[in-house]
Amino acid sequence: MDKRQIIVDYLTKLFPNAKCELNGETPFEFLVSVILSAQCTDARVNMTTPSLFAKYSTPQDFVSANLTDVENIIKPCGFYHNKARNIIMLSHALIEKFDGVVPNTLSELMSLPGVGMKTAKVVLGFIFNQNVMAVDTHVLRVSNRLGIVNEKNPDKCSVLLEKYFKTDVQKLHHRLVLFGRYYCKAIKPKCDICELKSVCKFYKGVKNVSR
């Protein structure tokens, strides 16, 4: 069995029902949730968005929203000045360019204020079920440790991972996130219970150093 299949099989066994943990009743609400999740936990975002979406749930709502009010609601998510401004600006852009509908292509999504490749691919994968790999800090760390890539740029890493895994990439994204969050952690990774030691570049390096 090749390395790719070993990784896919193990992560599927660990997280058979892996999915995005962010909430959002509509594509627009989900897009806002993803923007809020930058440098913030999904759990914190999910605690904040009910109050936000009770008041503002569509691009039209945000276009007429008071910036300070939006900032005050999303403050627990951090970087609230930039996030509030971007959400209001992208709401304007959605109405002006896409009739208020969240687009389903990478280039169109990335044309919106505050939407980079990672955010766009999370939306494309979860909302539109496209075969894309969004790369956050967990996916970047895990893919480099396993030796799948040797790349520190998340956007370049994303393209390389899509080429490497080819199919079911969107499902694998969520599994890699959870694996990085709970097993292959930045500090004190759980190498002792991980079944990928035989194909892991990071573990082999640690083992050699400890000799």
Protein topology:
Elements: H1 3-14, H2 27-36, H3 42-55, H4 59-63, H5 67-74, H6 80-98, H7 106-110, H8 117-126, H9 137-145, H10 154-165, H11 169-182, H12 201-210
Helix pairs in contact: 1-11, 2-8, 5-6, 9-11
Keywords:
211 residues, mainly alpha, Endonuclease Iii, domain 2, Endonuclease III, domain 1, 2 domains, 12 helices
What does this structure look like?
This protein has helices at residues 3-14, 27-36, 42-55, 59-63, 67-74, 80-98, 106-110, 117-126, 137-145, 154-165, 169-182, 201-210. By secondary structure, it is mainly alpha-helical. The longest helix is centred in the middle third of the chain and has 19 residues, at 80-98. The mean pLDDT is 94.
CATH class of the largest domain: Mainly Alpha
- Any idea what the CATH architecture of the largest domain is? Orthogonal Bundle
CATH superfamily of the largest domain: Hypothetical protein, domain 2
First and last CA, distance: 29 Å
Question: What's the number of helices?
Answer: 12
Number of strands: 0
Please give the radius of gyration in angstroms. Answer: 19 Å
What would a concise description of this structure say?
This protein has twelve helices and no strands. With 211 residues, the chain is mainly α.
